């Protein structure tokens, strides 16, 4: 005979569907929406588990169907979608739950269903009247449901898939069991990516059929066509073009879909033909405009040049001035090197910096906010390399402490990543914004977390940096766990973060540490008790 189940919490009562325990709990005057350790109310827990009877009871007792969880601001609808409970969604909607409410990351019920590839739920939502479900709501990254779907597409290398199949066949012919197992594992992973891509493509087509706005742009001003090119999906690109989307839209870097395609041509020859056909659809006036828009450097070349400039900004200014002047006089060679350094030779004139003072702020030949082609100012480069003396000279000259480069990085972010505490203090005195975000949505505190810079984190927190930020559906504790940053995790917990807080997928830092085999994180978390 099994021992009787002892129930101590409403979560346990919901799990075991003990209606009488819940009724007694409510008769005692307990708050029906009281949050548990994970920030969830009773209805959230029931929706997450798909316990329909429990949900019905709680709703009949007056539980708000739109109540938001602490922290990530998820609603019961979102958790029901996340775990694929269609019946729970139907019940909540009958009780006037709002499908257009957004969580802390701006995600809606529809986006949750898309994220978990719940096709049946998506179909039901899209079959609802337009006034009930809004498919054009944007998340914190500026993405509509369609753009969010496209962002989740896997990039599939069909050539790699074919090569793996050939390798597997050869392994079988040679009867090499170890090689067969290895090839089969790689092939399964690629096939899984392909299957996922096909599901997201189907979802995208459903949204298009519902009338999704194809010219919507996210915070980076990327359109649906740009996502299709980036994700190497020619069929979707053709479909968007057939629907008449605007091919002349530009992203934040001034690039059209044609420019993006041009950057990817070395990796996908099939793009050449399709882009030539698409260009024929563009009228002459627009075509002329497209031709004069600036093409960006190849990303790898830009990164190499950028690294060189950073190294020279604080270590060998005279040598850098010589090389930069030479490149500028050459006028650039057209392949990226000349363009990346043009306009910045005054950055590296050592005699110029030796004479910097507040009186020189009126000098006509020095601009403290001039940038290289990556948008980086000298203050950013000096902050990154830890050149405190140069930072101190630039700040009184009205160097813009909150200026951003092409990736949205500020000087304080560069200093935070490298752990330059004194430079951070100087920047903060000149009102550097601690809550500024780069284009990936990362604050200086988030970047310091990834870099495991605990002392930097403490300083930023003391200056008002918020610890409850979410990046790519992950809180800072989860980010620290994934990257194995024990010092950062300890700092976050001291700042007041709950070590058992769960992310968008319902997983804690401990679970992410297991997945990423971060043994030091696991060892630390095991010492903490709930």
Helix/strand/pairing category: mainly alpha
Number of strands: 2
According to CATH, the homologous superfamily of the largest domain is Ankyrin repeat-containing domain
Helical residues, percent: 40-55%
Q: What would you note in describing this structure?
A:
The protein has 3 domains: 10-105, Serine Threonine Protein Phosphatase 5, Tetratricopeptide repeat (Alpha Horseshoe); 158-292, Ankyrin repeat-containing domain (Serine Threonine Protein Phosphatase 5, Tetratricopeptide repeat, Alpha Horseshoe), CATH 1.25.40.20; 299-466, Alpha Horseshoe (Serine Threonine Protein Phosphatase 5, Tetratricopeptide repeat), CATH 1.25.40. The chain has helices at residues 10-15, 19-27, 42-49, 52-60, 76-82, 86-94, 109-115, 119-126, 145-151, 158-174, 177-209, 224-230, 234-242, 257-264, 270-279, 284-292, 299-314, 317-330, 337-341, 350-354, 378-385, 388-394, 411-418, 421-429, 444-450, 454-462, 476-482, 486-494, 509-515, 519-525, and strands at 470-471, 474-475. The radius of gyration is 27 Å and the shape is globular. A hairpin with a 2-residue loop joins strand 1 and strand 2. The protein is an all-alpha fold and 530 residues long. It has 30 helices and 2 strands.
